Each structure stands twice: as structure tokens, then as C-alpha cells.
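DsbA family oxidoreductase: C-alpha cells wanted.
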Amino acid sequence: MVEQAGSQVVIEVWADLGCPWCYVGKHRLRAAIAQRPDADRFTIVMRSFELDPEAPHELERNEESFIRAHGGTAADVLRAERQMQAMARREGLKYSLDRLNANTFDLHRVVQYANDQGRGFQFFSDVQDGFFAGTLNPFDPEALAGVAESAGLDARRVREILASNEYADRVRADRREGLELGATGVPFVVLDRRVAAPGAQKVAVYAQLLEQVAGPVPSERVS
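Answer:
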């Protein structure tokens, strides 16, 4: 069974800021949607999934963050990072090796607010792109407020949220729901609540999944 022609399709994306596969997978999903002439049928909703809820709120170097969470050595991290950098660059994405990490819970709280305004995916994408490009410190409240304003959000509200505990329950609920749906990591994409795609799939695979839930790419009408 596929969606009726022209009906809206909701795509939910569970992701975390510092996850490189989320960064790559997000762009692949967006590319697959953009290939379709009915791209406006698809709405992407960001869902929160902290990969490391126990991460410190203080900034730490990328290799320190990885080793603390997964073990290994700095050489292991650098080797893996260089592989990811090469792959990202092949796909036209910027990828800085000089990144700082910290707890992402506060960012996810702002993402929840952005979702309420219909701009969750755009906001998260802008923040993550700047983070991996090495041009943005997303753990700086003022930097985050600036990105939010550029995405059409209220920077004042973002500052209020960051100074409070608003949306905390929703961030935790998102992670629980992702786990209940089968997520063992991120990215985890759920299309129309009927098809799940764990991991960063190729553009062609996302295209097949879009066709599965929304039907074949419609033919362009000749006027």
C-alpha cells in the first residue's frame, strides 16, 4: 500500500549533533527528496536522540570525547576521522577535524522549540553543518541564538529556553520512543510510521524508501 497521490508524508529523523553519520545521512536523505518533483509532499521532523547523555557540559576535544565514550586511542580516532572526512568531502560536505564536543541536551531542547515552529529540521541542519564545517560553536548560547534567528526563530525565546529547563521531558521522551521503535543508534529514519531505516543509507536507498511510502516519482506533465 502506498500513499495516495499528493498526500503529505512525514519523515522522522532521530539524530544527534556530533554524529558524523547523521551529518552525511541527513544530506543524503535531503538529496533523495530533492530528486522528486513532488518534494514538497515530504515533511522532515527532527527527533532528539542523545548518543552520550552522560557527556560533560564542559567542552572537550573530539578525540577526548570519543575515547571517553568508546575507548581506543587518539591515533584510532584520527584514522577514523580522516576516513569520514574523505567520504564527506566526496559528497561535497565540509568536515573539520578540529571540533570540540560537549553535552547536547540543551541543543535538543531548542530543537524541540524549533519543531513547534515548523523549523526543527532546518535549525538542526544549520547548526550541524556549521559544527562539522568548524565555523560554529553550538555550545555557545549566543551562537545558537544567532543560528536560530537566521532560521526564522525568535532568538529571545531561544535564550529563555537555554536559561531554563523547558522541553527537557520531550527530549527524553523522543529518545525513549526511538528505542521503542528499534533504534540502537543514529541516524534512525522513520518514514510515514511504516518503514524504518537505521544508519546513513545511500541516496538511492532513501529514494527507494520514499517510493515505497509515497509511490513512484510522478511524471512531469507536458503542457
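The radius of gyration is 18 Å. The mean pLDDT is 94.

Cheers.
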